[in-house]
Every structure is written in structure tokens, then in C-alpha cells.
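Consider this pair:
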Amino acid sequence: MNVAAVPPVVAVSCGDPSGIGPELAVKARAALGPSLPFVWIGDPAHLPHGAAVAEVTRPADALSVPGDHLPVMPLSFAAPARPGKPDPANAAGVIASIDRAVALVRQGEASAVCTLPIAKKVLQDGAGFAYPGHTEYLAALGGVERSVMMLASDRLRLVPVTIHIPLAEVPAALTPELLEDTLRITASGLAARFGIARPRIAVAGLNPHAGEGGKMGREEIDLIAPVLDRLRAEGMDLTGPLPADTMFHAAARAGYDVAVCMYHDQALIPIKALDFDRGVNVTLGLPFVRTSPDHGTAFDIAGQDRANPSSTIEALKLAARMSGSGS
């Protein structure tokens, strides 16, 4: 594919139409205008009442749409969208929107994918969705065995090794192979997508105080440290295992490019505490660029014009930068 020929247009999947996704798309377009072209893939009837829409047949058409109109590639859904009341009948449409966005990028018709929030249970109930979330489904669409979720903002980048599993299952799920794979994908992704040739990676321990020499758990000694030693010998810039409670103050963050954490909340709490409205979910290890706002469907405020588009705007900007189509 000739990268230079790819239109600088981000393909945006609609997310759950009963959540805040439709509102986010309209607000993001209003904020960005033609400066960052994107096309929303979904049912125009699901957008907020009165939204100015321009239906297009291909992403490149979005480049000529007036800045006060949202470029839309129409996709039929089975049911209307009732704000705050997700309907499993629309699950197949939500999945089809993701599929279409990915296909457009892989075919060279769009530069990157940005996904709006989904509700996994709704997809499971309505379409038998067999994946824990976007990250795993996108890996399947991309034909890779595994991808890595990274949360990013101007203040920090974080990668959880284990993601959507109960906390009680983390120690068993945390294997040397999984940790090594995560570290390799993270280092490769930062080099390929962020231009950091040899990223500085800080690695958290699993236990309080990183196990305190084995007094509060041996995962750091028996599992994490040997993996880090082996990869350091290959030339990777790794520090750790570190106590997680001292990794995220300003001076500590200045010492690394990304922090790798052992479980979901260990990674997501810091970024949501430090930069709640501007965090972006990035998937590393895919053969295409994918970002997403770092929040959920917010069914409780859907349809009330209260959704904050900041994270979606940052996700679109980062998608454009990572794909080389934006500054």
C-alpha cells in the first residue's frame, strides 16, 4: 500500500448508540471542524436531533464536507436508539461498525481507527460477542495473536499486563510468557508508532512494596525479575519491579516513557486520577492504528447533552499523529 495515498481521514466506529457515542461524534466534529477529518460509521437516525449531517460513500469524501457538518457513512441498525436504554437488537450493528472501520483502514481508504465506547454485555446478549472487549476483538480482526492496551495522555503512558479479569485471577494469569510478550509489544509499539527508538520502561510489582523481598509475595522474585533480567540482556531499557505506590508522582514519571503494570486498576487509576478527561486508549501490536476515548458508554447521562468530548478529541488527534496524517 502506498501510505502517501491514504486519505488523512480517521474512521470512527459508532459505539453503543444508546450511550454517549453519537453525542461525542457531533461535539468532536464541532470542536475540530475540517482540521482533523474523520468519518462516523453508524445510523444517522441515532445522532442527536438536529445534528448537521453529510452522508458520504467513502472516507475521502469527508475532506470536502463543510466543517459544521458531520461526515457519516450510513450503516443500518435493527432498532432505534433510546438514550440510556441499550438494546441488544443493535449489537450486530455496533460490531459491523467496528468491522467496517477496520476494513477501511486495511484497504487504504482511511488512515486510522477510532472506536467509540461499547457495552460488552449488550454485545454478548445480542450477538454472542465472544471477546472481553475492543482490544481482543481488534487483535482478531488484525490477525495477530495478541495486542496490548496502552492508556496515554500528555502526562503518562500506562500498559496493564492483565486486563479484564477478576483481581483474584491475576496471579495465575500473570505468566512469564505473558509479561515478556507485553514488554516486547510495548517496546515495539512505542518505537513504531511514537518514534521512541529505545523506550524507557518502568515495571511495577504485583504485591504491595513490590513484595518487600518476598515478605508480601514472591511474584517479583520468581516471575517478574527474571523476565526483566533476560530482556535487559537483550538491550531493553527496563527498571523494576518497582513498588506501584511510588511510581506515579511527577518526579518518578519523568524517568520513564511508559509504565507497565500487572493488572487493570494498577494502570487505570493513575491516569484517571491525573488526566481523567484527556486519557486515550491505544492498542499496540496491530497492523493498523487504533485509539479510543478512555471511558465507557455513560448510559446515565446519554441524551442529556452532558458528555465531555475531550477524551474523544484527544483520541482523534493521537490517531492522526500515529498514522502520520496529523500534526
Observations:
- The radius of gyration is 20 Å.
